[in-house]
Each structure stands twice: as C-alpha cells, then as structure tokens.
Amino acid sequence: MILFEHLVKRHGPRTVLDRISFQARQGRVTAFLGPNGAGKSSTLRILLGLDRADGGRALVGGSRYRTLDDPLRTVGSMLDGSGAHRSRTARNHLAWVARSNGIPGGRVDEVLEQVGLADAARVRVGRYSLGMGQRLGLAAALLGRPDVLVLDEPVNGLDPEGIRWMRGLLRGHADGGGTVLLSSHLMGEVAGIADDLVVISGGRIAAEGTLAEVTAGHASLEDAFFALTDPAQEAAR
Predict the structure, then answer these.
(1) CB-based contacts of 49: which residues, under 8 Å, 6+ apart?
(2) CA torsion angle for 92, 93, 99, 103 (degrees, to 10)?
(3) Where would I find the ABC transporter domain in this sequence (predicted)?
(4) What is the separation, in whole angstroms, between the first and last Cα of the chain?
C-alpha cells in the first residue's frame, strides 16, 4: 500500500501541498487527478525520494522510499518519459538499469517483449516516437517485477492500440495483487480503468473515493473533475 499522511511542501512563501492525506491500496488502480500546478508531480516526487517534504510523510509498504533495501524490486516508476539518453539503444539503457540494480540481464529481453519493443531494441532512443518512449519507460519500471507501480501520464503519446494495451497491463497488475498509482489528464481512460480516484486542487485534496462515489451527482467524470477543481470550490475549501 502507498500512504500519504499530512504531506506538506512549500516553495518559498507558496504552499504547494497543504497537509494532503490519501492512500493507494493493494489490488487497486488509483488515479491521481488534478489541473496543472495542483501538486500532483510534487506528491509523486516526494513519494519516490526525488524531493523532500516540509511536513508529513509518504510511505510504500510502511517505509520511506529512501530506506528501501531493493527499491526497483519494490516500486516501478515512470516520471517524465523514459529517462534514457537519446544516443543509447533501448536494450543498452535497460541493461544499464538492470546491472545497477542487481537484476539478471535476461530480464531485459523479457520486458522489451512485454512492452512491444523487442523489434526496436537496438534502435537509438533519439529515433523513438513519444509513444515508444513511454513503452521504454514502462519497461524500466517493470524490470524488477515490483508490486507497486507509480506512473505519471502513462498513456501520453500512445495510439489507440497502445492505450488499450496499457489499460490491460495495468488492470492485470492490480488484479494480480499489485498496487497502481497513476496520474492522467485523460478522463475517459481514467474512467475505464480506475477503481479509486483522488482529486487534488490548489494543493489540497478536493475529493477521494471510488469512481462511483466521486462522480455521484455528475453526468461524467469530466463533469465531476471540473466541478471539484473550479476556483470557486477551491476558495470555499
């Protein structure tokens, strides 16, 4: 399980996260939604040890990410695309990630096949499309067979077939007992895969619950999202 408790983050005088608390549960896909600048990226970066919180805590299985003995085997993450240098091939990039984390080299070919990049394994990343870069980022996240996946905009740049494939992969991961926390701006895709929703606006949690609970009284998830993140609603909170 992923747990955020009273998380606070400030950038100078501005409060980016204002004591936010929520959880992403095992066996569930949790979608983390919010407009640009709402605090989504800051939350995920703190969870993954890339930023420090000014208060509260973010835990994976009861531990802070920085204290995990084998982080890549516990948490697979994808923030800001693949993270691979443009001059490297996909296979070389993944082989380096595997070696640096004590993962057998044979796992590289397995994940390349899993994400549909086996035929492009020796192509330099600089020649990849945005969607191929997303697949490579996911391959790196899957290398350690982690129970927890944390993904920022995982379907960005994917074509309809790729989106359908991603939906099936994440659904299968959760149904197999894994934990999935993802952010996305694509409301239709979120509605098709998420078990639970967390909506953040202005650094505060605007709503959380199951899809049915968050969308109650609204015609669609998109309508609920815009109502919950309306500046007037934010001021009222």
Answers:
(1) 64, 65, 66
(2) -110
(3) 2-227
(4) 28
Q: How far apart are CA 233 and CA 91, in angstroms?
A: 48
C-alpha closest to that of 44 among 4, 1, 101, 97: 4
pLDDT at 203: 94
For the chain, domain boundaries: 2-82+146-236
Please report the pLDDT score of residue 233 as a whole number: 59
What would be the CATH architecture of the domain defined by 2-82+146-236? 3-Layer(aba) Sandwich (3.40)
Residue type at 212?
A
Q: Where are the alpha helices (DSSP H) in the chain?
A: 40-47, 71-74, 90-100, 106-114, 130-142, 160-175, 187-193, 211-215, 221-228, 231-236
| The model scores a pTM over 0.85 | yes
24: nearest Cα among 215, 156, 178: 178
**Is the confidence at residue 232, as pLDDT, over 70?**
no
Q: What is the tens place of the pLDDT at every residue in 144-158? A: 999 999 999 998 888
